[in-house]
């Protein structure tokens, strides 16, 4: 009978444990540089902003570095201001309308491009152009198109409906807000279109062929095949689109010339004004924390709801 050396067995076991531990921690070492970078550029500013939200930071004491602690005073001022609630409602309307049209038009165009069409490559390039153009260039272009006297939009309206159809897009806050929505819808459709198109191309054609054999209509195929299989793709895209739209500063700030009127701004433009026009940095930091919590709550709720539905 062969004798087993206990020392050799112990040595072999230790080597095996070491290799196992090395294999276990190896991915972490590769991820460590990315984790450190994320901590520096995301976590540190976030915690610093939370700290500033409990302090009174203004232009007068900015360079001194000595910021008096005011507790929850900044938050109390925000929640007792009627402007916060009206701007929040306007921001919700802005986000819902934009995301709805982004998803609906984007999905429609994706379904159209997923079929056999003449010149489909050229059509795809044309439809993706709004996404390729920088936002501030697009916003400036749309601002020129909304000009009361020389803008293309009013010229088209006058040509179709007469001289009285001209709209004061840039001087009336309500029309300025609508102009911002139109511009942002145009900018956001290509993103949803490309995401949806990628999801559609991953759906097997056999499912549609089986549905055709069963006599399913186009709506039934869309409802029972396309939408359920697109959910894993559309859910993160809708969350990202909601966050981006909720925090959209460029379009509103450029088209409304700095959001001079309170009736044409959303929460992020209001934060921008409080920080860089009124120099109330602590107040703006508290405002930013509230926006972060709103978006975090929405994202968590939406993703959880989608999982429960699945």
Automatic annotation (TrEMBL):
UniProt xrefs under CDD domains: TM_PBP2 (cd06261)
This protein's UniProt keywords: Cell membrane, Membrane, Transmembrane, Transmembrane helix, Transport
Membrane-crossing segments per the record: 28-47, 92-113, 125-142, 175-197, 233-255, 281-303
Domain of life: Bacteria
Coiled coil region boundaries: none
Coarse class of the protein's main subcellular location: membrane
Family per similarity comment: Belongs to the binding-protein-dependent transport system permease family.
Domain ABC transmembrane type-1: residue ranges: 88-302
Organism encoding this protein: Clostridium aestuarii
Membrane-topology annotation of the record: Multi-pass membrane protein
Pfam families: BPD_transp_1
Family matches, as InterPro entries: MetI-like, MetI-like_sf
Annotated protein name in UniProt: Sugar ABC transporter permease
Compartments where located: Cell membrane
């Amino acid at each position: 009978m062969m004798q087993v050396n206990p020392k050799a067995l112990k040595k072999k076991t230790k080597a095996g444990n070491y290799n196992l531990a090395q294999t276990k921690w190896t991915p972490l070492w590769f991820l460590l540089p990315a984790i450190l970078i994320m901590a520096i550029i995301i976590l540190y500013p976030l915690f610093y902003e939370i700290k500033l939200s409990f302090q009174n930071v203004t232009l007068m004491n900015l360079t001194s570095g000595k910021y008096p602690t005011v507790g929850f005073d900044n938050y109390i001022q925000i929640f007792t201001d009627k402007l916060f609630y009206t701007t929040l409602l306007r921001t919700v309307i802005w986000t819902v309308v934009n995301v709805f049209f982004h998803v609906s038009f984007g999905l429609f165009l994706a379904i159209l491009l997923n079929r056999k069409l003449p010149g489909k490559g050229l059509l795809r390039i044309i439809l993706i152009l709004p996404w390729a153009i920088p936002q501030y260039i697009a916003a400036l272009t749309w601002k020129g198109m909304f000009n009361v006297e020389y803008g293309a939009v009013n010229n088209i309206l006058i040509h179709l409906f007469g001289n009285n159809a001209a709209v004061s897009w840039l001087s009336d806050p309500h029309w300025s807000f609508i102009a911002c929505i139109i511009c942002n819808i145009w900018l956001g459709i290509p993103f949803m279109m490309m995401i949806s198109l990628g999801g559609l191309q991953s759906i097997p054609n056999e499912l549609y062929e089986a549905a055709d054999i069963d006599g399913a209509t186009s709506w039934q195929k869309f409802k029972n095949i396309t939408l359920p299989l697109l959910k894993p793709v559309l859910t993160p895209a809708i969350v990202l689109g909601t966050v981006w739209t909720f925090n959209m500063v460029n379009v509103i700030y450029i088209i409304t010339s700095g959001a001079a009127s309170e009736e044409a701004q959303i929460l992020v433009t209001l934060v921008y004004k409080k920080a860089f026009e009124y120099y109330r940095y602590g107040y703006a930091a508290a405002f930013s924390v509230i926006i972060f919590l709103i978006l975090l709550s929405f994202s968590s709720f939406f993703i959880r709801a989608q999982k429960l539905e699945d």
